[in-house]
Model the fold of this input.
Amino acid sequence: MKLCELHNFGVYDTTNARPGKKRSIVRNTKLFEIEYYISANGTSIVNDHHYEIAPGTLLCGKPGQKRSSIFPFKCYFLHIQFPEDSPYRAALMQTPDFYRIIDSQVYSQLFEALIDHLLRVGYNPESDYINAKLLELFYHLQNDSQNNHNCLEHCDENRYQFIPKVLEYIHRNYQKPITLADMAALAGYSPNYFHNLFRKVMGITPQEYLMEQRLQQAKWLLVHTESSLSEIAYECGYSSQSHLCSRFKQAVFCTPGEYRQRNMARYQA
Done:
């Protein structure tokens, strides 16, 4: 069964692909462009809307949009074309352009498996495995759509306009000690009021969001670098190697060393 047509896919690292460049040119998209960010400190601009990108966030660009990016970032990407009468095309046209509230572990594993398979085996539009992974992706995008629509809509209201600023602050400073009071002061609210507003929009607490950003960066460094656990702990804002190990095992149900061994073995297979 041919579900859609993949025109391009892979891992895009602006540091290697566009050395010395600070941003891309503005262009009009013809396909669905799905990007899951592995590491990032940049901005994606869609129809003049600026989205601060970070590890564990996702972009679902639509045909006919005007797009550009501010570097740097690294992402998995898929460029997809659907038949005009495809129900998946119609469904994805209704999803938000930018996803902040997602289970990043689910998306990370999905993209890792799909892109790894495509790079090793090649693209076959009739492949049951590839189509199954794409269907899984479309399911999660549609399932997570409403929460992210709510997030974007809330951020247009005056009392929620602090959200993008706080998220950007977390994305750029997760490796530093950040307290609830620090984030609340940036928003201009008391800690308790800020905590409640943030949770209403994002679905999780500010502290949980911060922990998720640190965890995602730690997972990426474990698989893609040879940094020691103590170095990773320092780079990701953990107070010590034991603190990293404790948080990691609590969230991922394995130690950082086990996670590294399991995932590096799959990449080298």
User: Anything to note?
Assistant: DSSP finds twelve helices and nine strands in the chain.
